């Protein structure tokens, strides 16, 4: 085949890094043309992939089109400058060459002087392909090590995220630089290695957190507000950075708001991302977090509060048809006593609000559970919780046990001093020691400051139930109840969380009776009555 007038095509490629380092597409084309000419072939076309890696699973449009044309027999041989311009992954390389061979299309490499059609060419190609794969695997591992070390040192990997820039103001090329940033063209604020605050974007990030912390704003509604929100006296509007080379800055979208609210970077920390594979799915997630050397835009306390709100309001719509929605504190906590499915909040006629069985909402079956007025069932649950607090002695036990522990500790300390001084017999000291250890073991189980603080907070919120927001109501009910069971219009049982179990265990046993291992009945509290 070599001396025949074959129809030849060339393929050239450089990655983004190689473009920066000065690898030339023109040099590859010249080598391909000279080689084709010396072979006496006819060069019909040159396929080009610029700025794209040749690693496994990379998307290369020109390569894919060339393989389609090869199958259609639009040429006889493919010529590349080097094998790694074609593939750096051995399996992909051999698979592609096997396909070419089945289509009777030859392959040649200029630098390696390799002709795929010969036996020695196939052997040499396998060795070169293996070396190319080893190189890229080693490069990948070294890149991971470099990124991890950079994160440990407190530096962000990749391009600056929204709200930050490199601080190279005098030679700024950022999309939100000239004509948008007031520091454009001024003295540099950074060395280009770390992140500094972008004066406009960081203000937008601060706004996003302030609005979300009210508990009344959704990601989408914040994005909508930003489209018309004026940032300064010059009428400056918030905008995204866009994608360099693809699209310019524009309105900030809902997904961008979500990314801002969930990134710990804005609290002054550097997240290091890794990948994990489960089955055929590869997911990217935060593996480690390190203190960053960049300035925080929000305090860590506010970042954590935002994550708490997002967890509480997960899958709870804040707006419907541009109107703020009511938050249903018992949504997905309230369960049907007939079928066991969750009940969801929904609005009804004349501004009324209800909890409805999921079976009826989804029309997935039949259930006799009728909708129940939201305010009525919520008041029943709160009344039940208030009665628990009224009848329990846990908080009082905590206070008295603290005083008792202090007295026992003082008595034991005195006995030990007397024993060391030789003024107390060993037998008497051992008796005092045994009393101390026994009392300390018993009373310490009640001495839990964190639990006391939590219970005090719950009690205060229950007392001021009508005054707190729906967000606070939902947080409270999620804290103390795993599930509330409703049969018809009657509250019949409740499954507590771990936070509520100490109260139930210390309450009067006559006031609360168990309903299986995971729940309690409400009959003895006088709550088993019609709810509407």
Oligomer: single chain
Largest sheet data: 5 strands, mixed
- Mean pLDDT, to the nearest integer, reads 79
Distance between the termini: 90 Å
Number of helices: 17
What structural category do the secondary elements indicate? Answer: alpha/beta
List segments where confidence is low: pLDDT < 50 over at least 5 consecutive residues.
507-532
**Percentage of residues in helical conformation:** 40-55%
What is the CATH class designation of the domain at 164-312? Answer: Alpha Beta
Total strands = 18
Strand order of the largest sheet: 2-1-3-4-5
The radius of gyration over CA amounts to 35 Å
CATH topology of the domain at 164-312: Hect, E3 ligase catalytic domain fold
Describe the structure.
The protein is α/β, with parallel strands linked by helices and 532 residues long. Among the domains are: 7-147, 3-Layer(aba) Sandwich (Rossmann fold), CATH 3.40.50; 164-312, Hect, E3 ligase catalytic domain fold, CATH 3.90.1750. It is 42% helix and 16% strand. The protein has 17 helices and 18 strands. A 5-stranded mixed sheet has the order 2-1-3-4-5, with helices on both faces. A hairpin with a 2-residue loop joins β10 (319-320) and β11 (323-324). The model is unreliable at 507-532 (pLDDT under 50).
């Amino acid at each position: 085949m070599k001396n025949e007038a074959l129809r030849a095509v060339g393929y050239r490629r450089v990655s983004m890094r190689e473009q920066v380092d000065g690898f030339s597409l023109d040099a590859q084309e010249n080598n391909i043309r000279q080689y084709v000419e010396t072979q006496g072939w006819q060069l019909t076309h040159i396929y080009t992939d610029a700025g794209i890696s040749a690693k496994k699973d990379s998307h290369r449009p020109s390569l894919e089109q060339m393989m389609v044309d090869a199958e259609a027999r639009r040429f006889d041989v493919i010529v590349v400058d080097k094998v790694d311009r074609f593939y750096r992954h051995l399996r992909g390389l051999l698979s592609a060459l096997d396909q070419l061979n089945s289509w009777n299309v030859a392959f040649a490499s200029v630098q390696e002087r390799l002709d795929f059609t010969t036996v020695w060419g196939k052997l040499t190609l396998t060795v070169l392909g293996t070396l190319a794969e080893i190189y890229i695997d080693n490069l990948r591992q070294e890149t991971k090590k470099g990124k991890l070390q950079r994160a440990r040192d407190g530096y962000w990997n990749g391009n600056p995220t929204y709200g930050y820039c490199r601080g190279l103001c005098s030679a700024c090329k950022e999309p939100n630089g000239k004509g948008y940033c007031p520091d454009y063209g001024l003295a540099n604020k950074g060395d280009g290695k770390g992140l500094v605050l972008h004066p406009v974007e960081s203000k937008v990030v601060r706004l996003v957190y302030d609005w979300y912390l009210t508990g009344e704003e959704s990601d989408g509604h914040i994005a909508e507000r930003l489209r018309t929100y004026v940032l300064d006296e010059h009428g400056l509007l918030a905008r995204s950075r866009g994608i360099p080379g693809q699209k310019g800055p524009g309105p900030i979208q809902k997904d961008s708001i979500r990314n801002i609210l969930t990134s710990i970077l804005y609290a002054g920390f550097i997240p290091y991302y890794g990948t994990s594979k489960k089955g055929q799915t590869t997911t990217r997630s935060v593996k480690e977090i390190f203190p960053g050397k960049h300035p925080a835009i929000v305090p860590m306390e506010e970042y954590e509060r935002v994550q708490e709100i997002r967890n509480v309001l997960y899958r709870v719509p804040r707006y419907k048809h541009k109107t703020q929605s009511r938050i249903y504190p018992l949504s997905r906590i309230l369960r049907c006593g007939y079928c066991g499915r969750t009940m969801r909040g929904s609005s009804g006629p004349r501004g009324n609000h209800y909890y409805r069985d999921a079976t009826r909402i989804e029309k997935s079956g039949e259930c006799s559970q009728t909708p129940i007025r939201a305010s009525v069932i919520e008041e029943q649950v709160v009344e039940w919780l208030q009665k628990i607090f009224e009848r329990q002695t846990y908080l009082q036990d905590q206070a008295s046990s603290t005083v008792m522990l202090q007295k026992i500790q003082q008595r034991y300390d005195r006995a030990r001093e007397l024993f060391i001084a030789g003024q107390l017999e060993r037998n008497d000291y051992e008796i005092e020691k045994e009393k101390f250890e026994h009392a300390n073991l018993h009373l310490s189980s009640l001495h839990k400051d964190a639990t006391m603080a939590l219970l005090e907070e719950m009690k205060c919120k229950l007392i001021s139930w009508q005054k707190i927001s729906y967000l606070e109501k939902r947080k409270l009910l999620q804290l103390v109840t795993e599930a509330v069971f409703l049969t018809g219009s009657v509250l019949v049982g409740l499954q507590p969380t771990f936070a509520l179990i100490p109260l139930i265990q210390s309450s009067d046993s006559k006031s609360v009776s168990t309903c299986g291992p995971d729940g309690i009945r409400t009959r003895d509290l006088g709550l088993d009555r019609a709810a509407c």
